[in-house]
């Protein structure tokens, strides 16, 4: 459990909050690059409690500007996208990509008022088919993290995103919670081969996990320079250990364990829109080859963790990535399958996760919870984030993850003899660049 004060600190991300200030030290994904055309239609977005307009200037550069015009506070969503900035549709004030007012056509030509007006704007960069922004205080943003999937050819990578109606952290907790796989995503009977084969098609490593009779893995956690490494250990019938290793990377990345053979890593990015909504980015990639048609079909077919079946789009922030299923229809629950075949009859791992994460309400009151040993990873990741936010607030300490190269890691699964330390035994699977060692914190 957490104190009410720590729960507030963990979950509140708006401007001026300690966790919001921590998040603003890192690059944040905004939209896919393909969502904005040069000089085309802008999009409303909301990040860390701030309402913003994303657009692509006619010169091709992506921009992110505070939604409300500093003149009389109307929305710039209806503004005119120009060569290297945005012009308000009300009285024609124009702003460059940095937010500086560069034209005030309704003021006398001799006025120098425009030089004194600046609005919120955040720098954007593009990598891995994603537009990233830096909302922090540094005059010169840090380099982008060297996440493996952002540096691969596009055919190796599949990215989806969806909106969830809950605080980012309770969603993130699902991403580091290896013990729920045996329940939420499992068949009702563990000896039902047909169901196990069906579920494994979803591509989320449930097959072996579900077949291993040990439903109560032992957890070990290790702090690294970029986050936390989480090992879930199950004992195989032959006495060896089956380790499923999850990554947490500051401040909002999780990577669930891969399969043992031909690993195809996945990652979530839990980007807070505000305290009660999160954009759940999901990425699947293959380090060495393009994803096959079959693999892509499994990703988008509704069984896996990607959800791309959306409700009719609106122009609200992320209003085009709201899943079609939701609280209004019990997330598509098949109550008959729930009764007879599946531990949870909601179709697809992704919606099972979303339903269960949202079911706790917009912000979980962690002062009421009862944590067990299977929650070791969750406790450690909370501690890591809380400590980083407090250290930044109280002493200005730069948070973990300053080295962009530290982000070149993967999750893994590995079978090891009992006497091998799991991080060392799995090292060559965990690092993207051969020979690199993880740095413990
Ligand atoms: S409100 Fe934007 S220019 Fe007047
Ligand atoms: Fe899950």
Quaternary structure type: single chain
Q: Judging from the principal axes of the Cα atoms, what is the shape? A: globular
What is CATH's topology name of the largest domain? Naphthalene 1,2-dioxygenase Alpha Subunit, Chain A, domain 1
| Proportion of residues in extended strands | 15-25%
Strand segment count:
19
The unique ligands bound to this protein are: FE2/S2 (inorganic) cluster, fe (ii) ion
Number of helices: 11
Architecture (CATH level 2) name of the largest domain: Alpha-Beta Complex
Describe this structure in words.
There is one protein chain. The protein is of the alpha+beta class. The strands form four sheets. Strands 12, 13, 14, 15, 16, 17, 18 and 19 form an eight-stranded antiparallel β-sheet that branches. It starts with a helix and ends in an 11-residue tail after the last helix. A hairpin with a 3-residue loop joins strand 13 and strand 14. It is 20% helix and 24% strand. The chain folds into two domains: 108 residues, Rieske Iron-sulfur Protein, CATH 2.102.10.10; 283 residues, Naphthalene 1,2-dioxygenase Alpha Subunit, Chain A, domain 1 (Alpha-Beta Complex), CATH 3.90.380.10. The protein contains eleven helices and 19 strands. The site of fe (ii) ion has 6 residues, from helix 8. FE2/S2 (inorganic) cluster (FES) binds next to loops.
